[in-house]
Amino acid sequence: MTPEAGRAGFRIGCLLILTSAFLLVFLEPGSAEHSITLLTLLMGLIFTGALALLAWWSQR
Predict the structure, then answer these.
(1) For position 2, what pLDDT does the model report?
(2) What is the reported pTM?
(3) Burial group, residue 13, by CB count within 10 angstroms (0-12, 13-18, 19+)
């Protein structure tokens, strides 16, 4: 994986995590928007974690 691709993926993951975490503060629990935002947060965490593992394995 090239460093530019890793940085771009990390920025996308951080954008998903930060925006969804910010929105969760203002959304009503139990609403559809809250559920979708939780799903987006989970997807961002999984994506960033997978990217970190991929970068770690490529360094070995």
Answers:
(1) 84
(2) 0.88
(3) buried
